[in-house]
Amino acid sequence: MAEMLSTAVSALRAFRRQLDVTSHNIANASTPGYSRQRVDMTTREPQLMGNGYVGSGVQVTGIARYYDDLLSMQLRDSTSAYSRLEIYSSKAAVLNNLFADSSTGLSASLQRFLNAVQGVANEPSSSAARQVMLSEAQSLTQRLQTYDARLNELDAEINARLKGEVADISAAAENIAQLNEKIAAALATTGQPPNDLLDERDRQLSVLSQHVKVSVVKQDDGAWNVFIGNGQSLVLGNQAARLVTYEDPFGSGRLGVAYQSASGAIAPIDAAISGGSLGGIMDFRREMLDPARNQLGQIAIGIASAANLQHHKGVDLTGAMGGDLFGIGEAVVQGKEGNGGSGSVTVSRTDLGALTPYDYVLEYTGSAWSLRRADTGEAVPMTGSGTAGAPFQAAGLSIVTTGYAPAAGDQFMIRPTAGAIEKFSVLISDPTKIAAAAPIIASASGTNSGTGTITAGEVLDASDPATLRSTVNIVFTSPTTYSIDGGVTNLPYTPGGAIEVNGWRVRIDGVPATGDTFTVKSNVGGVGDNRNALALSDMLGQRLLSGGAESLNDAVTRFVGEIGASSNRANVSAEAQRIMREDAAAAMDGVSGVNLDEEAANILRFQQAYQAAAQIIAISQTLFDTLLAATRR
Amino acid sequence: MSYRISTGRMHDAAIAQVLGRQSALSRTQSQIASGLRVQTPADDPVAATRILELERMRSQLVQFGKNADAAINRLSIAEQAMADLTGLLQRVHQLAVQANNGAMDDTSLRSIATELKTRVQELQDIANRRDAGGEYLFAGFSTQTQPFVRTGGGVTYTGDQGVRTLQISPTQRIVDGFSGAHVFLDIPEGNGTFAVEVGVHAGTASIDTGQVVDSAAWNAAPLPHQYTIRFTDPDLDGTADTWEVLDGNGDPLLDGDGNPVTGTYVAGSAIEFNGIQVKVSGSPAVGDTFQIRPAGRESLFDTLDAMIAALDAPANTPESRARLGTALNQALAQLAQGMDHVINVRAEIGARLSTLDSAETMRADLDFELSGNLSELRDLDYAEAISRMNQQLMGLQAAQVAYSRIAQLSLFDYL
Fold it and tell me: Least buried of A322, A525, B184, B408, by fewest C-beta within 10 Å?
C-alpha cells in the first residue's frame, strides 16, 4: 500500500507538471517564436519483490522544446532571401513609379521639346514659337532635375537606412552573445535546456537573418557562433563583433558597410554582404540606382551636347552666332583619401558615342596609369600618354594626368555621367537668342544665263565664324569648270556635287553657263530661315549614343524599360520567395507551433490521468481502512 | 499524410489569404477605374517600352500635322497671289497688244502707260504680300524686310533666295514657299536662248525676238554668243541693202568656210546665222545695228517699266514708231515668258499641295494604326476585367466566410 500510494503521488506530481506545461503552451499560443514544450517522462526504477519487478511509478526527466534544427535553418535562410527581395522590390517600385507616367515622363518631355524645335522651324521669326521652345527646354530640364533629385534622395535614404541596418545587426549580435552566455551557464549548472532562453535566441537570430544572411555553427557548451559574409564572425560564444558604416574614400558622401572586430579594427565588407534587408538595399543601390543615375546622366549629356553642337552652327534673330543652349555638369574626378601625390587630374568628355554609363577607377601603379571599371574591376585600355597634347583616351573620355605628381597606389574615381544633371540648365532666356537660322546663304546671280541652281547651304564647322560668314563667289569659267573667288580655279563641275569651303557646304545642280556666278555670304536679315532649327531637330533624332547604335529617344525608352523589367523581376522573385518563406515557416510551425485543440485534448488527458491517480490514493485509503477494520477486533 | 498545424498558423494563413485576395481585387479595381492594363512599366516592361515609343510617334505626328497645316496655309496664300498675278499679266498683255496695233496716237499710248503705272504698283503689292503671321511671302529668309522696293532705277529685290523646308511626315519634307527672286526676277529673257537689243537706230527697222532654228549650231558657236547685226550700203546708193554680222570683238563673223556672214537685206525676211534666226522689217538706215546676246533673266518689274518708258516716249515719227514696235514686241515676248513662268510656279504649288494632301492621308493612316496598337497594348479588356473582378469578389467572400466558420471551432467549447 505504501508503494501504491507513492506510485499515485508520483503520477499526481507528473501529471500536475504536464498540466503546468500545457498551461504554459496555451498561454504562449500567440507568442512569436515560441516553441511548444513537452514534459519528458519515464518510469521510476522498479523494485524487485522476490517474485518480480514491481513498477514504482513515473518520474519527470525534463521539459523539452518541440524543435527542428534543419527547419529552423531553412526558415532563417528563406527569411534572409525574402527580406532582400522585399526591400529590393519596394525600392525598385519607387524607381518604377518615378518613371511610370508615359504622358508626363522623360520620353514625353523630350518629344515635346523636339516638337517645339519643329515649331520654331515652322515659324522661325515667331517669338511665341521660340518662347514655347524655351519653355519646353525648361520643363525638360525640370523633369531631368526632378528625377536626379529623387535619385539623390533615394541615395540619401539608403545611407540613413544602412546606418539603421548596421545598428540593428550589431544589437542583435550583442543580444545573441549575451543569450549564449546565459544558456551555457544554465546548461552547465542544471544540465536542463533553458527552453525560453533558447526560443529567445532563435528569435534574435531570426531578427538578424531578416537584416543579413547568417550561418550558424553550434558549440558543445550550447552557445551558437554566427557568421556573415565570407565567414566574418559576428558572434563567437559570448563575444559580439559590430558592423559599422564608413564613408566612401573617394568623397562621394555615400556610405559603405564595414566589419569592426572586437579589437576595433575596421574592414570594408560591402562586396561580401548578401541577403537580408542590408544585402537587398546594397544590391539595389549597385544594380539599379547607380546605373539609373548614370544612364540618366548619359541621356542628359546626349541632349545637351547634340543641341549645343548644332546650336553653335546657327545664328539667332539678331544675326549673332548661337551659343550653348544647355549647360551640363562636367565629368567628376575624385581623388582617394590618402592619395600621396599632389596636383590634379583633369577629365573631360570628348566622344558622346563612346561614353558609357559606368564609373571608372584610375590608378597609378608606380610606373604607369591604369584604368578599370569601378563596378566589375575590368581593365580598360587607354590610348595616348596623359599629356595635354596627347591625353589618355578611353570610354569617350580624355584624361590629362601631367598636372598630377603621383605616388604609387594613388587612385581616382572618375564618374563620367553622374554629376551631369545637377548642373543641367537652359542657358538661354531670351527667345531671340535661339539660333534657328544658318549663318550663310547662297544665291545665284540674277544675270546668270544657265539653268544652274544652288542649295541654300549648310554649316559643317562653325569654329571660325568670321571665315565662315565671309563672302565667297563661285564663278563658272565654263559650263564644266568653276573657280572659287580667285583662289582655286577651274575645278571640275559635277551636277549636284557638294562644294565645301570655309566650313560650309552647298550643292550646285543644273547646267550653268560660262560666267554664271553663285555667291555664298553671311545670312543678314534672314529671320525666316529655319535651316538650323531643322538641323537641330535632325541632330537630336540621330543615333548619337552607344557608338551610334541608339538615339536619345531609344535610350530613354530602354532606360524606362530596363527599370520596369528589373522592378517586375524583383516583384516576381519576391512573391516566389515569399511563398517559400511561408512554406518554411509553416513547416517550422508544424513542429513547434501550439495547437489549442491539441492542448485542450492534452488537458483532458492529463486531467483524467490526474483524477485517476487521485482515485488510487482514495482506493489505497479504502484498502488501508479495510485492513484496519479487519484487525480492530 | 496530414501535417500538424498550429492554431496561430491557421489564423495567419487565413488572414494572409484574405489580404492577398483584397490586394488582387484592389489592383483590378484600379485597372477598371483607369481603363489601363499597363499602369507602370513593371506591369509589362515589354509593352511599356512599346507604349512609350508609340506615344512618342503619335506626339511627333501631331507636330508634323501642324507643320503641314502651316505649309498648306502659306502655299494657299502664295497660290492666291499667283492667281492675282496671272490676271494682272493678262491685263498687261492686252494693253501691250492694244498699244502695238500701230494706229494709236500718242495720247492713247500715254493713257495706256498711265494704266500700266498702276499695274506696276499692283504688281509690287502682290510681290510684297504677307502671310497670316505677318511675314513677307516672297522675301526668301528675310521675311521681316519688305522685299520689293522702288528706288530710282526701278524695283529692286532686297530679299534673298532662301526657301524654308518643313518636315510633314517622318520621312517627308516640303518647301513651303518661293523666294521673290524666283517668282518675280527669274523670268527667262527674250526667247529664252538669246535676247535682242536695239543698237544704233536711225531708220524705221524693227526686229522680232528671234528664234533658235538649229540648237546644235548655236551651241557649237564659240562663246560668248554676242553678235551685232549691222546694215551697210556697199553699193553706196544711200539705202542699207546689205546686212553683216560682227562678233563680240567687233570683227566680221566668219562662217564655216571662213567667209564673212552677210546677206542682202529684204524687209521681213529672216536673217540667219549660227543656228538662230531674227526677222527685221522696215527700212534700216545705213549703220543701224541690232545686238544679240545670250538670254539672261529679267524681272517682271523691268519688263513693265520698259513698256511704260517705251509708251511714254513720243512716237510721232516712223523711226520712233519702229522703236516702239520693237519694244512692244519684246515686251509681249517677255510677258509670255512671264505667264509661262507663273504657270510653272502655280503647277509647283499644286504639286506640293497634293503632296501635302497625300502626306495627310498617310499621317491619318499611321495615327490610326498607332492608336490601334497603343490601345491593344495598354487598354484594358473590360469584359475580361469585370469577370475577373467578380471572380475575385466571390473568392474574397468565400475566404472570409470560411475563415469565420473555421475560427469559431474550438475543442474548449466542449470542455
Answer: B408
State the complex-level ipTM: 0.81
> CB–CB of B410 and A600 under 8 A?
yes
C-alpha cell at A272: 561580401
Grid coordinates belonging to B395: 473568392
Q: What contacts A98, CB < 8 A, 6 or more positions away?
A: A147, A150
Kindly list the residues from chain B whose CB atom is less than 8 angstroms away from the CB atom of residue A553: 53, 56
Question: If we measure between CA atoms, which residue out of B160, B126, B97 comes closest to residue B328?
Answer: B97
> pTM for the full model?
0.84
Q: If you search the block for the grid coordinates 508503494, which residue do you land on?
A: A3
Q: Closest approach of chain B CAs to the CA of A528, in angstroms?
A: 4
Residue B37, C-beta contacts closer than 8 angstroms, at least 6 positions apart: B31, B43, B44, B377, B378, B379, B380, B381
CA distance A316 to A63: 91
User: Which of the four pLDDT bands, split at 50, 70 and 90, describes residue A11?
Assistant: very high
Chain B interface includes A83 (CB < 8 A):
no
Alpha helix segments (H runs only) across A383-472: 465-468
Which residue matches cell numbers 523636339? A114
Q: Is A589 on the interface with B (CB under 8 A)?
A: yes
- The three three-digit cell numbers of residue B191, written as one number: 526667247
Residues present in chain B in total: 415
Mean pLDDT along residues A475-495:
81
State whether residue B154 sits within 8 Å of chain A by CB. Answer: no
Specify the DSSP class assigned to residue B271: E
- What CA–CA distance (Å, rounded) separates A113 from A136? 5
From the number of C-beta atoms within 10 Å of its C-beta (0-12, 13-18, 19+), residue B362 rates as middle
Contact across the interface for A100 and B39, Cβ inside 8 Å: yes
In this complex, is the C-beta atom of A626 within 8 Å of any C-beta atom belonging to chain B? no
Structure-derived torsion over alpha carbons of residues A603, A604, A610, A613, reported in degrees to the nearest 10: -150
Q: List C-alpha distances in Å: A77 to A72, A73, A408.
A: 9, 6, 43
Do the chains contact at A600 and B411, CB–CB below 8 Å?
Answer: yes
Half-sphere exposure of A474 (CA within 13 A, CB side): 29
The enclosing H or E element of A93 equals: helix A69-98
Touching check for B147 and chain A: CB below 8 Å? no
Q: How many CA atoms lie within 13 A of A142 on its CB side?
A: 9
- For cell 504698283, the residue is B121
Q: How far apart are the first and last CA of chain B?
A: 28
**CB neighbour list of residue A622: distance below 8 Å, 6 or more residues apart:** none
How far apart are alpha carbons A143 and A556 in whole angstroms? 13
- Is the pLDDT assigned to residue A272 strictly greater than 70? yes
CA B212, distance to chain mean position in Å, is: 31
The B residues from 277 to 296 touching A (CB cutoff 8 Å) are 294-296
The set of cell numbers assigned to A242 is 559590430
CB A418 within 8 A of CB A254: no
pLDDT exceeding 90 applies to what percent of chain A? 39
Distance CA B371, CA A347 (A): 46
Residue B271: how many CA atoms within 13 Å on its side-chain side? 31
Picking from B7, B223, B298 by the largest number of A CB atoms within 10 A of its own CB, the best residue to mutate is B7
Contact A331, A414 (CB under 8 A): yes
Give pLDDT tens digits for A76-86: 999 999 999 99
pLDDT band at A466 (very low <50, low <70, confident <90, very high): confident
pLDDT of B324-349, one tens digit each? 888 888 888 889 989 999 999 999 99
Give B224's contacts in chain A (Cβ within 8 Å): 514-515
Query: What Rg do the C-alpha atoms of chain B give, in angstroms?
Result: 42
A2 pLDDT band, cuts 50/70/90, is low
The predicted-structure confidence for B228-239, as pLDDT tens digits, reads as follows 888 888 777 777
Amino acid identity of residue B374, one-letter, is L
- In angstroms, the CA A403 to CA B18 distance is 67
